[in-house]
Design a protein that fits this description.
alpha+beta; 21% strand; three-stranded antiparallel beta sheet; globular; single chain; 154 residues
């Protein structure tokens, strides 16, 4: 696909960054539907690139920050992330490899964004291997060196 426009979309909240330079240094973000309507774009005229919007990036930094005191809510969210990792890793006790959509279906207690975010984190720490198959499809598997899933670190 040779798209003329690449649209940055937040991988957590699905808002897109507008192509307008903000005067006050704050980036304007909106829904994909509004962006496409405003710029009169059809499905073949753009590609999406996944990033974090400033709000979600700040939440991510708060959740994974090791500096400063941890609030009760941050502690609860951190435990839920650990539960997400364990849920995802449990899937690999029965399968060797699956695509990302199959993994989402195998984890019905998690949202697509939770699975995507946790698979991204687990692949960065070497507990999962994520491979791009093309056409928006990803393969998820245990790393070659791992025989059984390793429990997620807190």
């Amino acid at each position: 696909m040779n798209a003329a426009i690449v649209i940055p979309i937040c991988c957590v909240c699905n808002r897109v960054r507008k192509h307008v330079q903000a005067v006050n240094r704050e980036e304007p973000w909106d829904t994909l539907e509004v962006f496409l309507r405003t710029h009169h774009l059809s499905s073949g005229e753009y590609q999406l690139t996944h990033i974090y919007c400033p709000d979600c990036a700040m939440q991510f930094r708060k959740l994974h920050s090791i500096d400063g005191p941890i609030s009760r809510q941050d502690s609860i969210l951190s435990r839920s992330d650990n539960n997400a990792a364990n849920t995802i890793l449990d899937v690999f006790t029965t399968v060797q490899k699956c695509d990302l959509d199959m993994l989402v279906r195998a984890c019905p207690t998690l949202t697509w964004n939770q699975v995507f975010s946790e698979v991204d984190r687990l692949s960065r720490v070497g507990q999962l291997r994520l491979s791009y198959l093309g056409h928006g499809q990803y393969s998820v598997e245990l790393p070659v060196t791992s025989e059984v899933p390793v429990m997620a670190r807190i």
